[in-house]
Amino acid sequence: DAGVTQSPTHLIKTRGQQVTLRCSPKSGHDTVSWYQQALGQGPQFIFQYYEEEERQRGNFPDRFSGHQFPNYSSELNVNALLLGDSALYLCASSHSPGSIRTGELFFGEGSRLTVL
Amino acid sequence: GDSVTQMEGPVTLSEEAFLTINCTYTATGYPSLFWYVQYPGEGLQLLLKATKADDKGSNKGFEATYRKETTSFHLEKGSVQVSDSAVYFCALAPYNTNAGKSTFGDGTTLTVKP
Predict the structure, then answer these.
(1) If DSSP codes are grouped into helix, strand and coil, which group holds residue A84?
(2) By C-alpha distance, which of A40, A3, A116 is closest to B107?
(3) For B63-99, how does the pLDDT look when each residue is reduced to its tens digit (9 = 90+)?
(4) Cβ separation of A92 and B100 shorter than 8 Å?
(5) Which one, of A101, A99, A64, lies nearest residue A80 by Cα?
(6) Bridge partners of residue B38, in order along the sequence
(7) Beta bridge partners of B63
């Protein structure tokens, strides 16, 4: 049973560039959430996708956008990269909202983004 | 808004010592509470959860009780092992919504020495 997979694992970009991160949810999950984890801090919620729509959003600017595909996989896009965007980006999958098991998040190992 | 505060780390213990990691929260309504663990080089894993007041979550010898009166969810283990060395995150999810929009504490690093 494959867990949550993310790609790439590491990447380096320069300021102003754009980046796309990818995530495949755990088998049986249809909801994907994205988090940003700065060094020494807890994960911060970016947004959540369910039924191919953004359902909830945290306090992140519009430079952060996403997409969910019919197979439930998801992408996180960040435009006009800033030095402060350097972080570990985590994808988490879960059962659909309203499910009795929706409280359980399953995380991938993350994509480490460095902006120079 | 919602927030989670964890005791500051790092925490260093000898094997077989008793562990407590404090966690308090601020939230509206009745959130669900979680502890996640991140072992070196791995992603976050759900360790245990509690969904209502006085519930006790437990897993792998770890326990935490949902205390609404003190808005706390402290993690405890009676006898830690070297393999428990990891970063522990306390988190909450809003009541009756999915956990996607969870709020996490900043994590507590635990090192257990033989």
Answers:
(1) helix
(2) A40
(3) 999 999 999 999 999 999 999 999 999 999 886 555 5
(4) yes
(5) A64
(6) B44, B87
(7) B58, B76
CB contacts, 8 Å: A99 with chain B: 98
Question: Please, are residues B69 and B56 in contact by the beta-carbon 8 Å criterion?
Answer: no
- Residue B1 to residues A8, A58, B29, B42, B102, Cα–Cα distance (Å): 33, 11, 12, 30, 12
Tell me: the pLDDT tens digits for A54-113? 988 999 999 999 999 999 999 999 999 999 999 999 999 988 776 666 568 899 999 999
From A49's Cα to the closest Cα of chain B, the distance in A is: 9
Q: Does A25 touch chain B (CB under 8 A)?
A: no
Backbone angles phi, psi at B105, to 5 degrees: -75, 180
CB contact under 8 A, B100 and A90: no
For residue B18, list its beta bridge partners.
none
Q: Are A38 and A113 in contact (CB under 8 A)?
A: no
* Region class of B100: left (phi > 0), else alpha (psi between -120 and 50), else beta: alpha
Cis peptide before A43 (omega within 30 of 0): no
